[in-house]
Amino acid sequence: MAGDVSVRKRYLAGGWYPNDANEIRRLISNWTAHQHNLGARAAVAPHAGWYFSGELAARAVWSLDECDTVAILGGHLRSGDPVLYVDDAGFNCTVRSAENDVELLKLLAHELREVGIQEIALDRDVDNSVEILLPFAAARFPTAKIVWLRVPPDYKARELGSALMRAAVAHKKKLSVIASTDLTHYGHNYGFTPHGVGNAAVTWVREENDKGFIQAVLEMDADRALNHARERFSACSAGAVSAAITFALGVGSRRGVLLGHTLSYDTHPDSSFVGYAAIAFVQ
Questions:
Q1: Distance (Å, whole) CA 174 – CA 56
Q2: Full DSSP string of 161-227
Q3: Using the 8-state DSSP alphabet, how is residue 235 labeled?
Q4: Where are the alpha helices (DSSP H) in the chain?
Q5: What is the pLDDT of residues 211-248, one digit of tens each?
Q6: What's the gap between Cα 73 and its chain centre?
Q7: pLDDT value at residue 36
């Protein structure tokens, strides 16, 4: 996984997150004024536009302990897809440019091959699941390198989490992991309306469907989280979460802490809406 001299540019428009670095810093400062470093080595954060889920994402990232490198694990993949990575030399994170940890990527590829995983490919898509979190990671860790990965929701997720831990040990660097996922996508816009529309649907998503996935994550059950998302359509990027759980268990985390759970409906009531959660894995 050799890098080149390029810096991956920003692709998402200002409606996703601010174009201005000072505005980003102002928002983050407001959102994290009472957020503490929980010493977490891994966390789950949403990846919608900041208007809907920026505060939860900030809580998740600010729960992380100091580190040398941050791996942001995105998704929006199907079971059977390859693990995707970016090999650019760095990233435009708006608040600063961040170097890509290409050495960690090389070690990760080796670790994956050692367990028989050859399905690794360059990420050429424009996808929000990693990019939306770049400014948070860059601001939280001003000197850290960043790794961009997208993870399919299958057995490769757990293997990737373990391989990341081994690669970081071999690299002799402290690694933190951010798993990027939104929760239930409900409504006609998403073709998913098992409980019709209205208050009953909102309650079902909040109190049952999202909650079931969140509980599996809090209990750090990577397989149950994957299965719940597959069977109940309760997360769009469950592979990233499964990988983060496996990594967190490997570095000594023993429980998840729920930092917040909301719906886009809470900000903008509509018949189609999405769930979001922030979770930190701690000892």
A1: 24
A2: HHHHHHHHHHHT--EEEEEE--B-EEBGGGTB-TT-SSHHHHHHIIIIIHHHHHHHHHTT-HHHHHH
A3: B
A4: 21-31, 50-62, 102-114, 128-131, 134-140, 155-171, 199-204, 210-218, 222-232, 238-250, 264-267
A5: 999 999 999 999 999 999 999 999 999 999 999 999 99
A6: 5
A7: 84
Element (H, E) at 150: strand 145-150
| Under 8 Å between Cβ of 180 and 274 | no
Tokens in use for 28?
């983050």
| Whole-number pLDDT of residue 2 | 42
Q: In the predicted model, is pLDDT for residue 1 greater than 50?
A: no
Q: What single-letter DSSP state applies at residue 63?
A: T
Distances (CA, A) of 112 to 107, 115, 153, 155, 159: 9, 5, 16, 12, 7
Distance from C-alpha of 56 to C-alpha of 62, rounded to nearest angstrom: 10
Beta bridge partners of 73: 149, 179
Going from the C-alpha of 131 to that of each of 10, 23, 139, 225, the distances in angstroms are 8, 17, 14, 23
> Is the distance from CB of 34 to CB of 59 less than 8 angstroms?
no
> Which contiguous run of DSSP H or E holds residue 152?
none
C-beta of residue 83 within 8 angstroms of C-beta of residue 152: yes
Domains in the chain, please, with CATH?
A: 35-282 (3.40.830.10)
Which residue, among 195, 189, 205, has the nearest Cα to 263 in the 3D structure?
A: 205
**Interior CA angle at 50 toward 45 and 55, to 5°?**
55
The CA distance from 192 to 195, in Å, is 9
| 1-10, 27-36, 108-117, 175-184: least confident range | 1-10
